[in-house]
Design goal:
The complex is a heterotrimer of chains A (about 290), B (about 375) and C (about 425). Helices cover about 70% and strands about 0% of the residues of chain A. Chain A has about 290 residues and is mainly α. Chain A folds into two domains: about 55 residues, no CATH class; about 210 residues, MetI-like (MetI-like fold), CATH 1.10.3720.10. The two termini of chain A are about 30 Å apart. Chain B has a two-stranded antiparallel ribbon with strand order 1-2. In chain B, β3 and β4 form a beta hairpin. By secondary structure, chain C is α/β, with parallel strands linked by helices. Chain C has two domains: about 180 residues, Periplasmic binding protein-like II (D-Maltodextrin-Binding Protein, domain 2), CATH 3.40.190; about 190 residues, Periplasmic binding protein-like II (D-Maltodextrin-Binding Protein, domain 2, 3-Layer(aba) Sandwich), CATH 3.40.190. Helix content of chain C is about 40%, strand content about 15%. In chain C, α2 packs antiparallel against α13, α8 packs across α9 and α16 packs antiparallel against α17. The N and C termini of chain C lie close together (about 10 Å). The chains are: A mainly alpha (about 290), B mainly alpha (about 375), C alpha/beta (about 425).
Chain lengths: ~290, ~375, ~425
């Protein structure tokens, strides 16, 4: 309880014990994942709980980084694709969502309410329903199996627009009014007054967009079939359930999965504060 | 366009399923002059147009295309627009709902699976998230941010990566079964066991197969199959989703807890309420808006589970409507059926969300 | 109307591998192809090949061969093993960007032709007469040979010889009947070892139904006969062994397929096709095993599988694609594939060499004599999947053979009606 400052020591100990157990529950799988990536296939299968690889082998990592010639794990290609796609999607969302969010928060134009309600309506569309529709439109626009086909459909998102609108609403109107009295137009006000003020919001949006597009799976699954466009998510998913004979190569799979987690983890630990704030403000996205 | 020129902007903004949208703040005063106002009118559209175009072309239009496809028997090989596919009207919907076929059996099975998935996942993730938040909501706790980070970390990793890890942990000779072996329990082959959990629980009582009353068929499945509970493989996915989502929901509960006035709690304590009573009678009612938000978000997202199912494989014990929509299209070349399933799922989610909203209110009264 | 490829490969056997040799002149009498002639350059192009690989061995062999071809003409070829060939191919085809060359399973051929996905280049093959006529027939529709048969395989019994000897068994104990199979499977089952591990799918267990004298589709392909007493006898035999615990399915022993179970020493015996040779050579080089014919039920029977090299009708580089296929199906190249991953060549001119070069694979070759092909009805995939999902329940009693076959009958009949 929030106000308990004088709990008996045994209760405090119990509380910490529970917290430690939960920490193990949430982090344990990652530790096992790390240890497994240094194990041999046999060791991984037989001593999967052990955190100490015996023997320690770098075989899985050598395969991930392409030092051995075994076929089927073009990790570098997947990584490159993930970087390309995530960069452009993030860029798109930051620019387009903030423009749209600002207009919805501050600019008076005919049809604004209609636009706002449309955006809210789009928010309510469940993502899983869009699998087939998105495939169809990419096919009709001849964008199937292309980078634009992977990027454009999610280069703006209703949740991001909504978050940005909320951020802009929090900025006191007096700031922009002052700029306008000085004779600045809408664009200059936006660029030199509003955007600097909305920096925390932009950082949050950048982080969320990066995380979202880095981890995106469904969109890329239906947007491509050619393996040259595999990202870390689609590549791993297709590799792991594998072909008949490749069986269960846990060390390689888990190592690659771990590596795909690292960029997001770095961003997470660097910008944790924004991350957590953003997670809350995007909670409405449903 | 419903907004007349010069009307006060920013009066909208209630709504969204979760109902936490804040009303708009006051607009800038109208002192900037009419030239500026005119500039705003076209600048506004200029600002929203790029984003709207993307949402329109890649979200609204596709839904229209998919609806058309759901009325055809398109095999995915020709072009579905312009005579390439046989028009069957509502035939695909009829096949899914009223015609006794393998297609309906798969659809019904997927809905059953997803129902059990929701039934277990939503309460578990909510309860776990709330417990974590309560544990953490102590200003004198040491290492608070470490714990918060630890609990939240699975939420930010990709669903593919976490699923792979769980499939490994729950493999036949995997870590979970090793742990169970310490306790003298011979764990099942989690990732390949399609038996229903409820059936398994009945086994020790000598119920090995369907009793006479449970053999009747209702919409392609016997009562026995309807009441099977989630399959053992689906339990792995339940555990996985609880593990990955609790962190996010915990943050929401933490935010909610921090809004609770401590004086009320202290007053309750002075009145002699025990810790549990304070939690049940003060904290919980005040968390009601957050609780409703978490339940609604949980309900909506669990009905859409896909990535995890994709990795577990095409197995009637785990298929969900979202996955079936995909596999009917891309595996069975029945895009019409696949699209129809997507629309039925859409309808189901909207109905459930509004039913829930009506049952518990929107939580906006606080 | 599309000709179904239901004809058993039985005839293929005798004609082919055993008599083999010089009868290269038989005219198959197919009409001239008009749309097989391909467009595009044959040099300096980039081809993509999508394969449903049996493992690293096959992927590597196909990659290497394609690279060798590419090097000759200044082309590049990317070979991709699909996770799920049907799914990835459907997506690519419907997305309008098909791979240039891809595996086509005999059971999927009809649907692909119907959708206009395949270029009919088969009649232009210079060595067309060298292919086994029955294999060509599997890939013939409307009088045109659409694609070149890649190879074929049959099922046989593989025995881990170390475990065999450890259980005190000798060559004399090699089972030739169901009773004997049950006896040795029981004897071989100890703590960590299961006597027989078989894939939990109709593509493997169907062999017992065939051996009991059953069939899924009647001989002229007009009706299903899945719920016959013979099929029931076959499936009940499987159930009996499964309930005794002497037969298990790969996932029950933490393996992805029979070859993995055998290689890891978790299974003493398994039933797989030729692909197991390459699969275990790559993953378990130290495994000692022998391949023997499947034991007899009411009759001797096995299942056969075949695929062809499909060329996309909409591909821009059809000329180069056909050229690649010609290279890949040449006698020498097929023998190289055989060496790498064990399938049997689809051309008669390689049969003699295959037989002399791989005496230890005689059982597969012999199997061709009494082998049956897969059911080729559009939409049967889904029906089979439904059946496969219930197989696992045979071991714990949650599935009953009779009910499984009744469902197979009902769903199969529905698929057949929908296809006509």
């Amino acid at each position: 309880m929030a106000v308990r400052t004088y709990s008996p020591p045994w209760r405090r100990a119990l509380g910490y014990l529970a917290l430690a157990a939960f920490a193990l529950f949430f982090l344990g799988p990652f530790l096992i994942q790390l240890a497994t990536s240094f194990k041999t296939d046999a060791d991984a299968a037989n001593n999967s709980l052990s955190l100490v690889p015996n023997p320690v082998t770098y075989g899985a990592w050598e395969r991930i980084f392409g030092f051995t010639d075994a076929a089927g794990l073009p990790f570098g290609r997947w990584l490159t694709n993930s970087v390309i796609v995530a960069t452009f999607i993030t860029l798109g969302r930051v620019v387009l969502d903030s423009l749209c969010g600002y207009a919805l928060a501050r600019l008076r134009f005919p049809g604004r309410q209609a636009v706002f309600w449309s955006v809210l309506g789009v928010l309510a569309v469940p993502g899983a329903v869009l699998l087939i529709p998105r495939f169809l439109v990419l096919k009709e626009l001849m964008l199937f199996n292309s980078y634009p086909g992977m990027i454009l459909p999610i280069a703006a998102d209703a949740a991001g627009i909504f978050i940005m609108r909320q951020f802009f609403l929090q900025i006191p109107p007096s700031m922009e009014e002052a700029a306008r009295i000085d004779g600045a137009g809408v664009f200059r006000t936006y660029w030199s007054v509003i955007l600097p003020l909305a920096r925390p919001g932009l950082i949050t949006l950048t982080i969320l967009s990066f995380q979202g597009s880095w981890n995106e799976f469904q969109m890329f699954l239906v947007a491509t079939s050619d393996p040259q466009y595999n990202t870390l998510t689609t590549g791993l998913a297709k590799f792991s359930s594998g072909q008949l004979g490749s069986g269960t190569q846990y060390p390689v799979t888990l190592g690659a999965a771990l590596l795909s987690t690292i960029p997001v983890a770095i961003v997470f630990f660097t910008f944790q504060r924004h991350f957590i704030g953003g997670q809350l403000s995007s909670a409405v996205k449903g | 366009m419903t907004t007349s020129i010069g009307s006060e902007p920013g009066t909208g903004g209630q709504g969204a399923l979760a109902g936490t949208v804040q009303a708009t703040a006051a607009p800038p005063r109208r002192s900037a002059g009419s030239a500026l106002r005119r500039q705003e009118r076209w600048a506004g559209w200029l600002f929203v147009l790029p984003a709207l175009a993307i949402l329109g072309v890649f979200l609204v239009v596709p839904i229209g295309l998919a609806f058309w496809v759901s009325l055809t028997r398109w095999d995915g090989l020709s072009s579905p627009f312009g005579g390439g596919a046989e028009f069957v009207g509502l035939g695909n919907y009829r096949d899914l709902i009223t015609v006794d076929s393998l297609t309906r059996q798969n659809f019904v099975t997927s809905v059953r699976n997803n129902f059990y998935f929701v039934l277990f996942t939503v309460p578990l993730q909510t309860a776990l998230a709330l417990s974590l938040a309560v544990l953490l909501n102590n200003r004198f706790l040491r290492g608070r941010s470490f714990f918060r980070t630890a609990f939240f970390f699975p939420s930010i990793t990709s669903s593919i990566a976490t699923t792979l890890v769980f499939l490994f942990l729950f493999s036949g000779g995997g870590a979970v079964n090793e742990l169970l072996a310490f306790l003298g329990i011979d764990g099942p082959n989690w990732t390949a066991d399609s038996r229903g959990v409820f059936h398994q629980l009945l086994r020790p009582f000598g119920v090995d197969g369907p009793p006479a009353w449970a053999q009747g068929q209702v919409v392609n499945l016997s009562w026995w199959d309807w009441l099977a509970g989630p399959s053992i493989t689906l339990c792995v996915i339940i555990a996985l989703v609880v593990w990955t989502t609790s962190g996010t929901f915990m943050l929401m509960f933490l935010a909610g807890l921090q809004n609770i006035n401590e004086e009320v709690l202290e007053a309750a304590e002075v009145d002699g309420a025990t810790g549990w009573q304070r939690f049940r009678l003060v904290t919980l009612p005040m968390l009601r808006p957050t609780l409703i938000l978490v339940l609604t978000l949980g309900l909506i997202s669990t009905w859409q589970v896909f990535d995890q199912i994709y990795l577990t494989g095409n197995n009637p014990a785990t298929i969900t409507p979202a996955y079936l929509s995909y596999s009917q299209s891309f595996q069975n070349s029945a895009f019409g059926v696949g699209a129809a399933i997507a629309f039925l799922l859409f309808a189901l989610i909207i109905v459930l969300a509004s039913v829930q909203r009506r049952l518990v209110g929107t939580g906006e009264e606080d | 109307m599309i000709r179904r490829t239901r004809a058993p490969l039985a005839m293929l056997a005798g004609a082919a591998l055993l008599l083999t040799a010089a009868c290269g002149g038989s005219d198959s009498g197919f009409g001239d192809s008009d749309d097989g002639a391909a467009g595009g350059a044959t040099t300096g192009v980039r081809l993509s090949v999508l394969i449903g690989s049996s493992g690293d061995a096959e992927t590597k062999a196909v990659s290497d061969a394609s690279t060798a071809w590419a090097g000759k003409g200044g082309n590049t070829v990317t070979v991709t093993p699909a996770k799920d060939l049907t799914q990835e191919l459907t997506q690519a085809l419907s997305g309008g960007t098909p791979p240039d060359v891809f595996y086509v399973d005999a059971s999927r051929f009809a649907a692909l032709v119907k959708g206009g996905a395949l270029a009919a280049y088969g009649d232009d093959l210079p060595n067309k007469a060298d292919f086994y006529p029955n294999l060509l027939e599997s890939f013939t529709a409307e009088g045109k040979v659409y694609c070149a048969p890649k190879d074929f395989s049959t099922l046989a019994l593989q025995i881990n010889t170390d475990l065999w000897a450890k259980a005190g068994l000798t060559d004399k104990d090699i089972p030739t009947t169901w009773e004997q199979l049950e006896t040795v499977a029981t004897r071989l089952t100890t703590g960590g070892v299961t006597g027989l591990v078989v894939g939990d799918t109709l593509d493997r267990l169907g062999v017992f139904m065939r051996q009991a004298g059953g069939t899924l589709l009647n001989s002229d392909g007009t009706a299903f006969e899945a719920d016959s007493p013979q099929n029931l006898a076959g499936l009940e035999y499987v159930q009996k062994l499964a309930r005794k615990g002497v037969l298990k399915f790969p996932k029950q022993v933490d393996a992805g397929w029979g070859g993995e179970a055998l290689g890891k020493g978790k299974a003493a015996m398994t039933i797989e096709g030729n692909w197991i040779v390459g699969g275990v050579k790559n993953d378990y080089p130290n495994l000692k095993y022998t391949v023997v014919p499947l034991p007899k039920g009411a009759q001797q029977a096995t299942l056969s599988f075949t695929q062809c090299w499909g060329v996309a009708a909409k591909g821009e580089n059809r000329a180069a694609a056909v050229d690649l296929v010609k290279y890949l199906t040449s006698t020498d190249q097929q023998l190289a594939f055989t060496e790498a991953f064990g399938v049997m060549p689809s051309v008669r001119s390689a049969a003699g060499q295959f037989a002399t070069r791989f005496p230890d694979q005689k059982a597969f070759v012999d199997g061709a004599e009494y082998a049956y092909g897969p059911v080729s009805v559009p939409g049967f995939d889904q029906v089979q999947k439904d059946f496969d999902a219930k197989v696992r329940g045979l071991s714990d009693g949650s599935s009953q053979p009779r009910a499984m076959l009744e469902a197979l009958q009902k769903n199969g009949t529905a698929a057949l009606q929908a296809a006509n």
